[in-house]
Design goal:
The complex is a heterodimer of chains A (about 170) and B (about 90). Chain A has helices at about 5-30, 50-70, 75-80, 85-100, 105-120, 125-135, 140-160. By secondary structure, chain A is mainly α. Chain A has a single domain (about 5-160), classed as AhpD-like (Up-down Bundle). In chain A, α5 (about 105-120) runs antiparallel to α6 (about 125-135) and α5 (about 105-120) packs across α7. The relative contact order of chain A is 0.15. Chain B is mainly alpha-helical and about 90 residues long. Chain B has one domain (about 10-80). Chain B is about 60% helix and about 0% strand. Chain B contains four helices and no strands. Chain B has helices spanning about 15-30, 40-45, 45-60, 70-80. In chain B, α1 (about 15-30) packs parallel to α3 (about 45-60). The longest helix of chain B has 18 residues, at about 15-30. The chains are: A mainly alpha (about 170), B mainly alpha (about 90).
C-alpha cells in the first residue's frame, strides 16, 4: 500500500493471484505439460467440433491468442475446457475481466500470474504466461527478474512458516 | 507461536548488527518500520544465514529493471500462492 496502490489495486492483485493459482491447478490437472503438445487428460476440442455456442467463445480466444501469444489456435487449455461450454465461458470471461488493465497495468498482472505459476511449479501455465510476456516484449533478463522475486520470497515464506513467525507488519491506518 | 526466540536487535554485534542496521534503514523507508522485522530477527542466530539472505534480498529486490511496485506485486502474489501468512 505504501507503494501507492489503493484498495482497488490490492483487490486486483488478489484477483489475478487467485485466478493464476486456479489456472495453474487447471492446467496441471488436465495433464497439459507443454504449450506445444496437444496430449492431456481430455482430447482438446478440434476446430470443426465446436457447437455454435462454444464457437463464439473459442473465436474470441483464437483472436486473443493470435495477438497476445502469436499462436494460430486457442491453447489446448481452453479447447479442453470447451468440452463443457459453461465451464469454458465462465472461466474465459473471468480471465478477460481480471487480466484487463485497471489500477494495475496488464503486463504487470501477467508478470504476477507468471510468478504464481512459477511458485506453484505449473509447467503449462509457466509456458503460457511466458509466451504472452515475450510477445509483449519481456526479455530473458525480465523473466529472470520475476524468477528472482519468486525465488527470494520462497525463501522468506519457508523461513516464516517453518519458524511460525507472527506478523509484525501492519497496514497503514 | 514462534518456534524460536527472536533475536533482540540491541543484543547483537558484529556482522549481524551491521546487517540489522541496513535492514532497518530499508524497512523504515519501505514500510515505515521502527524496528527490525521478525523475519530477520528469527535469522539472527546465524550470521551466515542473515548475510546470505540479505545479499539475496539486495540482489533480487533492490536491483534490476522493474520498479519496486512491480517486484512487490509478484512477491505478494507468491506469498499468497504459498499460503504464507507472514
Amino acid at each position: 500500500m505504501r507503494l501507492g496502490v489503493d484498495e482497488i489495486g490490492v483487490t486486483e492483485l488478489m484477483g489475478v493471484t487467485e485466478h493464476a493459482r486456479a489456472l495453474a491447478t487447471t492446467g496441471a490437472a488436465l495433464l497439459l505439460d507443454s504449450l506445444d503438445r496437444e496430449t492431456g487428460l481430455l482430447a482438446p476440442l478440434a476446430p470443426g467440433e465446436a457447437s455454435p455456442a462454444v464457437e463464439g467463445v473459442l473465436g474470441e480466444i483464437a483472436a486473443w491468442a493470435r495477438t497476445a501469444m502469436g499462436k494460430a489456435a486457442p491453447p489446448a487449455l481452453w479447447r479442453s475446457l470447451a468440452r463443457n461450454p459453461h465451464y469454458l465461458e465462465a472461466t474465459w470471461r473471468k480471465d478477460v475481466a481480471l487480466m484487463a488493465p485497471g489500477a494495475l497495468a496488464a503486463r504487470d498482472k501477467r508478470r504476477v500470474a507468471l510468478g504464481v505459476a512459477m511458485a506453484t511449479r505449473a509447467r503449462y501455465m509457466i509456458e503460457y504466461h511466458t509466451a504472452v510476456l515475450r510477445r509483449a516484449g519481456d526479455t530473458d533478463r525480465d523473466l529472470l527478474e520475476i524468477l528472482g522475486v519468486v525465488d527470494h520470497y520462497t525463501t522468506l515464506n519457508t523461513l516464516s512458516e517453518a519458524m511460525q513467525i507472527e506478523s509484525d507488519i501492519r497496514p497503514p491506518a | 507461536m514462534t518456534t524460536i526466540r527472536m533475536v533482540d536487535p540491541a543484543a547483537v554485534s558484529g556482522k549481524v548488527r551491521e546487517i540489522f542496521e541496513a535492514v532497518l534503514r530499508r524497512e523504515r523507508t519501505v514500510f515505515g518500520a521502527s524496528s527490525v522485522s521478525n523475519i530477520w530477527r528469527c535469522m539472527g542466530h546465524s550470521a551466515a544465514l542473515v548475510e546470505a539472505n540479505w545479499n539475496r534480498s539486495r540482489a533480487l529486490m533492490q536491483r534490476g529493471d522493474f520498479t519496486p511496485l512491480q517486484r512487490e506485486l509478484i512477491a505478494t502474489a507468491v506469498s499468497i500462492a504459498n499460503a504464507c501468512h507472514y
